[in-house]
Amino acid sequence: MKTHIQAAFDYMNEIHAQDTTGHDVAHVKRVHKLAHTIAGSYPNANHYVIEMAALLHDTVDDKLVNPEAAYRNLDTFLNNLNVKSTDQDAIRYIIKNMSFRQSEQVGKLKTIEAQIVQDADRLDALGAIGIARTFQFAGHFKEPMWTGEATQQELNNQSVQLEQLSPSAIKHFYEKLLLLKTLMNTPEAQEIAAQRHQFLEQFLNQFFDEWE
């Protein structure tokens, strides 16, 4: 199994080595570490599936690659490793359904393995790292850090329609990052998310003090 984990890391590294969107190798390594840490509280979970899915989860992200080709490549990779069909299905289920956008359609993920990997990925969107990744992503896609289209009070009171605002890093806080604390699956992730969420709020207060 260790050889499979190393192979998955190498496969991921080839895809993410040059990433400048915040979905780089360092991000995947943090998600893998967080997933491994959370999984320690669940001895009956399939830790192999958790580690493989954590390492491979962004190799098919449609924000970064052509998903159809990426899924074909992933299938070939898993088949060449002779990964058991049940484990392949479990890994694909996690990767296909764990994203923030997808979760709005599928709801709570069905397996503890999927919930753990999803939590780990979401935790990396919070705290200082989450803030840095948000601005990195916005810069990569030539979005401004903020547009000044609403005040912090309007955003906090939800008196402005987010979909009417232009894309920006700060908008992403309100459409995703600030929601993640309440979406964690495991108690372990909920505890970490609470502290990282607080840091987001502190940052936004300081940001708007300086902006306005």
UniProtKB/TrEMBL annotation:
CDD domains: HDc (cd00077). It comes from the Bacteria. Residues 24-126 form the HD domain. SUPFAM superfamilies: HD-domain/PDEase-like. This is HD domain-containing protein. Gene3D superfamilies: 1.20.58.1910, HD-domain/PDEase-like.
